[in-house]
């Protein structure tokens, strides 16, 4: 059984994402992420760092989720940055010619 995917915001402007990002988990996470984006806006935050170090496995659904969050953040005027992008997502992004779309922080 896959470990449950979890999104948390331990500090203002910092999120952590853990577990497995797949077709079974991303719909719920998409809603949770949009809720956190709205909360960030309500608190006048301008930047959010998302730590992906605890992702155990991810497929194209996980890639779509991260791209959706980027799009929502940019549409809201927020800067969303990912750190510790798992190798599986790096490969998928490269295969999809998305290398220059990602906003990556130094690990």
Automatic annotation (TrEMBL):
Residues making up the signal peptide according to the UniProt record: none
Pfam families on file: STAS_2
Transmembrane annotation, as ranges: none
PROSITE patterns per record: STAS (PS50801)
STAS domain span: 17-107
UniProt xrefs under InterPro entries: MlaB-like_STAS (IPR058548), STAS_dom (IPR002645), STAS_dom_sf (IPR036513)
Protein name as it appears in the record: Phospholipid transport system transporter-binding protein
Organism expressing this protein natively: Allochromatium warmingii
């Amino acid at each position: 059984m896959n470990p449950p995917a979890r999104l948390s915001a331990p500090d203002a402007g910092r999120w952590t994402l853990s577990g497995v990002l797949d077709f079974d988990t991303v719909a719920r996470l998409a809603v949770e992420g949009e809720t956190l984006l709205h909360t960030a806006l309500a608190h006048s935050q301008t930047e959010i760092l998302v730590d992906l170090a605890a992702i155990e496995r991810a497929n194209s659904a996980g890639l779509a989720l991260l791209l959706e969050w980027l799009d929502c953040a940019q549409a809201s005027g927020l800067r969303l940055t990912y750190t510790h992008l798992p190798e599986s997502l790096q490969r998928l992004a490269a295969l999809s010619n998305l290398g220059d779309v990602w906003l990556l922080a130094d690990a």
